[in-house]
Known about the structure:
The protein is 77% helix and 1% strand. The chain is mostly helical. It folds into two domains: 2-329, no CATH class; 345-557, Up-down Bundle (Methane Monooxygenase Hydroxylase, Chain G, domain 1), CATH 1.20.58.220. The longest helix is centred in the C-terminal third of the chain and has 36 residues, at 424-459.
Amino acid sequence: MALFFQILGSLGVFLFGMRLMSESIQKFSGERLRSIMASMTGNRLKGISTGFLITCLVQSSSATTVMVVSFVHARLLTLVQSIGVIMGANLGTTTTFWIISLLGFKFSLSSIAIPVIGIGVAMSFMKASRLKEIGNFLTGFGLLFQGLSFLKGAVPDINSNPEALEWITSLGGYGFGSIIIFLAVGVVLTVVVQSSSVAGAITLTMAYKGWIDYPQAAAIILGENIGTTITAYLASLTANTAARRAARAHFMFNIIGVLWMLALFYPFINLVDWLMPGSPELAVLGENGISTKPDLPNHMALYHTLFNMLNILMLVGFVPKIASLVEWMVKEKATPAGVPQFRYLDTMSWGSGELNFSEAKQAIGQLGDLSRRMFEQFLFIYNNPQEDLSPKVKEINKMEEESNEITSELYDFLIHCSTDQVSDETRREATHYLRVIAELEEVCDCCHRLTNRAAKRYRKNRIISKELEDDIVEFGENVQRFIDFYQERLQSKVSAADMEVALDLEDMINEKRRKLRKRSVIRLTKDSAEAHSELIYIEIVNTFERIANHAKNILQALPKEMA
């Protein structure tokens, strides 16, 4: 039991160090990472490169694929684009094997891990955010290798545990069936620890200590490639059809690779043995007389890399076919009209707030577009008072409900992002966007009230003179310009010139409102019988001005360009 907790604690230190490294890199270069993710709309090669780079940085293919599923869910990526990124993520995760095999087993890093942690912790208390994140990175780096050192010490030597060797030998006595058994072990191991990097570290350590031989280690690696797809699959369960297809594509890509690799299993491991110097089977006495296989981790790293590279080369030309296959396997489910298509929190993963933040910005843009469409619908209803447009009114009522749903979810999402491990700049941006969301919801509410006022006018047959009609239509067009203006800038930073335009638009609308209200007062003094029509007129004019104020507030709250 004590041995179990030693191994568990070692894995905990290893995993915590890896996560700390990942989070510090994201906080240090969050804006750059989001730019990389935004560039994924190019060709397949660019998608593969992006997936590879992101996974190398965050050191987790599971995190990358979960984010890909989330981005497909938010329609930031198409299915075909997501498959390219997933391919790159599979290749990127091989860097963890190389880091561990080249550094963790070739050198005694435990002697320098503690000083590195000490320097990192000291730097993490500095005021400068960049130095602080470099310190966190160093701390994570030291903890990662300290955890690996603990793991090497916790896993007992095979020579002192002959009963374990007998058990493993019994599993290896079924010929090719043993390869299938160890493949299943790799699947289960990865599903249990929910990290292919941690599963890889365990496998490398077992191989280094002589618990498993080269073919068995290679089979476990294949199983880990299948097991790592489970994380993305779980993230897609509550997502939309597109996201579930992306998760299924990840599984199909990996399972196809495993199937062809099983067909060429022994020739392929012999090829890797020929390419990599040293013998994977040579056992030598290492530290404290412990029997080790120092060259086996390198063979495993090369095997993992070559397998993923060849799998990409073989299947990259068939990406559209894979997409068509998963579209056939995962059928589109009809959703009721008016049901919001935003379900971000279900697909979000902790520790990747920087990349999830792009998803929030995309949703804010769509909320802004919803406010624009609601105002356009109101103008259409108002300009056709003699027609029964009750279906249009119901549509706007549903849009208003949708805006409330999206707003509530975005509040939760941005608070989730800002409390995650993100940079100070991203946290400030999240605060700005919380204000933007509140103002956008107010615009939607104003449009909803205007529509109900127009519908009431139709029901009670209250006629407004042609002069008043023209005034409201002209005023509405000015407000529409302001809404279009902020909509174009919701996902970018606002410049000083943009703010000048916004202030000019607001001044023009305020001046227009004063003139129209003055005319209304004059008309009321001349003919009080038209009081009902004038009250409707004044209410619409005042609501237009409120929308203009919200539009100005939106532009003021948006992040500003550096002068």
